[in-house]
Specification:
heterodimer, A: 150 residues, alpha+beta, Immunoglobulin-like, 2 domains, six-stranded mixed sheet, 39% strand, globular, B: 103 residues, mainly beta, four-stranded antiparallel sheet, three-stranded antiparallel sheet, 0% helix
Chain lengths: 150, 103
């Protein structure tokens, strides 16, 4: 059997087995919002989340450097006093604007830090969903060496 | 199965803080190799953290998350000694689960 085909079948079998034993639910394995991650700008990303416009809010704090030494690794932190159920990080000028999305189940604090790639100097947007509405804070991060390989 | 991730979970005053360093190339799909061919996108899609089978945090990553993804988050409701398990699944359907006791 073609090794690639065998590998694909093996993977499918493993995932199927894991799903049936409840290790990962099928839904979990597939739950990646492709539409949102294909969005080229904030509006498309918001639409994919079922939102319309994001309201600027001083209650959303965005922690990011003024100048990123390395565009491939830019630390970004988001925190808020709002009762957040979801947080998203958008890099406006990236080929795909949405960098990451976080779901906060009950009990999760409205705080997250991660590291993202930035292709060029751009606004970084912290989106927070609270009470069914989206709020946003933004900060310009200058990038000297682009992180997307360009 | 992917490479092991490093997880540190510490509880203080009812709040558990978690720091995770995952090992993954996270190819954005934008880079080209030496011959000029685009290196296909290969990145983690979803990350789920659970304590006692209850989801405490979930993330969806795009190709723009940096190589060897770092994640820092906090949640309430767990106690020292509880097992925190973290699972990621990437876009090639590879997956990795690691567990750690909350300190």
């Amino acid at each position: 059997m073609n090794p690639k085909r065998r590998e694909a079948l093996r993977l499918m079998a493993v995932i199927g087995l894991m799903a049936s034993t409840g290790l990962i639910s099928q839904a979990q394995a597939a739950e990646w919002n492709k539409l949102a991650f294909d969005g080229k700008n904030l509006d498309e990303v918001l639409k994919a989340f079922g939102g319309t416009a994001a309201e600027k809010s001083g209650d959303v704090s965005l922690n990011a450097p003024d100048i990123a030494e390395n565009g491939a690794v830019v630390p970004v932190g988001v925190s808020t006093t709002l009762k957040a159920t979801e947080i998203a990080i958008v890099v406006e000028k990236n080929p795909n604007a949405l960098a990451a999305h976080f779901t906060l189940p009950a009990g999760a604090e409205p705080f997250v830090t991660t590291r993202v790639k930035m292709g060029q100097t751009s606004n970084v947007l912290a989106l927070v969903k609270a009470d069914g509405k989206w709020f946003v804070a933004s900060k310009e991060v200058k990038v000297t060496l682009g992180g997307c390989g360009g | 199965m992917g490479d092991p991730m490093r997880i540190r979970a510490t509880e203080s005053g009812g709040v558990t803080e978690v720091k995770i360093l995952m090992k993954h190339d996270m190819e954005s799909g934008q880079r080209k190799d030496a011959t000029g061919k685009v290196i296909p996108a290969w990145h983690i899609n979803t990350v789920v953290a659970k304590v006692k089978d209850k989801e405490v945090f979930a993330a969806q990553f795009g190709p723009a998350v940096s190589k060897d993804p770092f994640l820092n988050f906090k949640f309430k409701g767990a106690a020292k000694g509880d097992k925190l398990s973290v699972t990621w699944v990437d876009n090639r359907a590879d997956t990795r689960t690691d567990e750690v006791a909350i300190a």
